[in-house]
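call fold(seq) -> tokens
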Amino acid sequence: MRQYGVLIVDDSRTMRALIATALSKDPQLQVLGEAADPLEAREAVKRLNPDVITLDIEMPKMNGLDFLDRLMRLRPTPVVVVSTLTKKGADVTVRALELGAVDCVAKPNIQDPGALENLAKSVRAAAEVRVQGWERTARPENAEQVHEQYRPDDRIIAIGSSMGGVEAISSLLASFPENCPPTVITQHMPPLFTRNFAERLDRQYKPRIREAIDGARLTTGCVYIAPGGEAHLEIAGSSAPYCSLKHGDPVSGHRPSIDVLFSSVARNVGKKAIGVILTGMGRDGAQGLLAMRLAGAETIGQDEATSMVYGMPRVAFETGAVVQQLPLNAIAKHLLTTTNALKSRMPCQ
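ret:
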């Protein structure tokens, strides 16, 4: 059994001790050292060569985001952001995920054993990520040309993602036009984080991007992101689909669950949908995507080379849920080409 070395970076001595205690209970994790600020962390990374780093963002001497940006450019290392569940904390954490952090977890509480266990689970999973092999994808240069020749048909797009999904979704939506097909997304994130994620994407890209609310009609040019940790996002209403938030137990280990979203799309939308499974750890989404395929929907899985974690896409592919696998930088173009009502009149590329 391989053991992974961890560097803990946090300006609070109490929090460092709590994180170390949580990680020490996992036999696969060994705390190599601690750092109270990014400058100490920089030297510790050189000295200890950790497999994974836990990182607080708001620290003295250097902003954690600046440290993360430099780390990913100069010495790519899996990073798990340990953040406070506040609006400000969520905003900077989403930015950290865009910069290449593997995952984010809430700061642990000694009275919450589940949070301590979740932290260790996330760190262990992050340690197995090959950050060096993950390819960031820029917006295609011909995006504007595609947008000018695009008119959506009557299909919707359903997307599921987890670990590594923040950057993957951002890259995909960067190519979406203002009149993109109605798009629903379940991304595994804590409460508050999805709202900030949606707000950031809405400021950056052309579609209207919102955290989903109960009863919201699916409209052309709109993207709906499932609220993190609060409820499952389902699509209801076959003739006029709308968002339905259902409170309940976790499904496939998650709330919101990708399986729940995909299964509802299969039941109520059927062949008038396209399902996409992106990077992520575990099995969530595979059965729901298979249901979509059996209902006549087209299904796509992100390929291994461009997935930060080729877990969910692999399981979906091996289950027979995926019609075709594509690299991340080809998925948006394929979606727009497939759903373009004017595609028969588009010039040859």
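The chain has two domains: 4-133, 143-345.
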